Amino acid sequence: AQLAVLAGLNRKLYFGTATDNPELTNASYVRQLSNTLDFHQLTPANSMKWDATEPERGVFNFTGGDQIVEQAERHGQIMRGHNCVWHSQLPDWVTAGNFDNETLLSIVENHCGTLVGHYKGRIYAWDVLNEIFNDDGTFCQSVFFNTTGTAYIKTALRAARKADPHAKLYMNDFNIEGSGPKSTAVATLVKELRAEGIPIDGIGIQSHLIVGEVPTTMERNIKFLSETGAEVALTELDIRMTLPDTPALTEQQTKDYDTVITACKNVDRCIGVTLWDWTDKFSWVPGAFTGQGDACPWDNNFNKKPAYFGIVKGW
Ligand code: XIL
């Protein structure tokens, strides 16, 4: 069973994956990445981030991003753009410049406008804002917030809308899978922005989860976020475990993937799910969380794991 076989029965959701430029030199990897029976959508894991696209002020580089968009277009897969504004993978010049409010807002406007404009008509949705909240629902003390307050949020969204009026504009965050202060803060802000006429169309729930710890409130919370009027997508799904893998962990992971896919499917405006890479070979997890891994539905040798069939079951 493959996802698209079932996609015919479930036209409401797309299924996709992140990928990264160095991976595109691996022919077997690219063969599976290009398999539209599994993947209808791609996200670049790194090459559209600020450090890659505007390494020096006003100097733009779209080489890596273009390569991923071309890869997707060759197979009719849709694209999510990731991301316009984030405090990580931000080139030093943005912080080191100690720019005043007005200058930093013009930098944000130019970055978002140029990036989104470069891909005009070719991106389904953009993560315009990435990880702007702390877990307690307060705003992250980024250079953007410290300098402009919340003004940069509106500037980024307006610049993105102007640059590509048809792209869906998202706010993307982690630890908003289940109910809690962070999810509430995202919903409140999205409602406020929409009431003010600031363009925001979607909420991205990253979904970097842990085996056995899928929040019990996930489906209810996806519904809650969609009640803002925005659409919702699971944008960076992986379900990691503390290694080594055991039969019990494998079984739980299979159930967890099913649970997560089912939760999205059961909410009207949850419109798609993206894996944060499909194979353990290229997963970011072991590099980011010591001792953890095996988070993806395909193993190191590109073979499907039981987790894959958990996805198919939920689908
Ligand atoms: C990760 C990439 O996968 C890594 O290759 C990179 O070293 C760090 O960033 N949340 C996000 C993504 O929004 O951009 C991050 O991607 C994973 C966490």
Chart the SSEs and their pairings.
Blueprint: H1 3-7, E1 14-19, H2 27-33, E2 41-44, H3 50-53, H4 63-74, E3 78-85, H5 92-96, H6 101-118, E4 125-130, H7 143-148, H8 151-163, E5 168-173, H9 181-196, E6 202-205, E7 208-210, H10 218-226, E8 231-242, H11 247-265, E9 270-275, H12 285-288, E10 292-293, H13 306-314
Parallel strand pairs: 1-2, 1-9, 2-3, 3-4, 4-5, 5-6, 6-8, 7-8, 8-9
Antiparallel strand pairs: 8-10
Helix pairs in contact: 6-8, 10-11, 11-13
Residues 45-46, 130, 206, 236, 284 line the site of (3S,4R)-3-hydroxy-2-oxopiperidin-4-yl beta-D-xylopyranoside.
Structure description:
The chain is an alpha/beta fold and about 325 residues long. It is about 40% helix and about 20% strand. It is built from 13 helices and 10 strands. Helix 9 (about 180-195) links the parallel strand 5 (about 170-175) and strand 6 (about 200-205). The N and C termini lie close together (about 10 Å). The structure holds (3S,4R)-3-hydroxy-2-oxopiperidin-4-yl beta-D-xylopyranoside (XIL). (3S,4R)-3-hydroxy-2-oxopiperidin-4-yl beta-D-xylopyranoside binds next to loops. (3S,4R)-3-hydroxy-2-oxopiperidin-4-yl beta-D-xylopyranoside (XIL) binds near residues 46, 130, 206, 236 and 284.
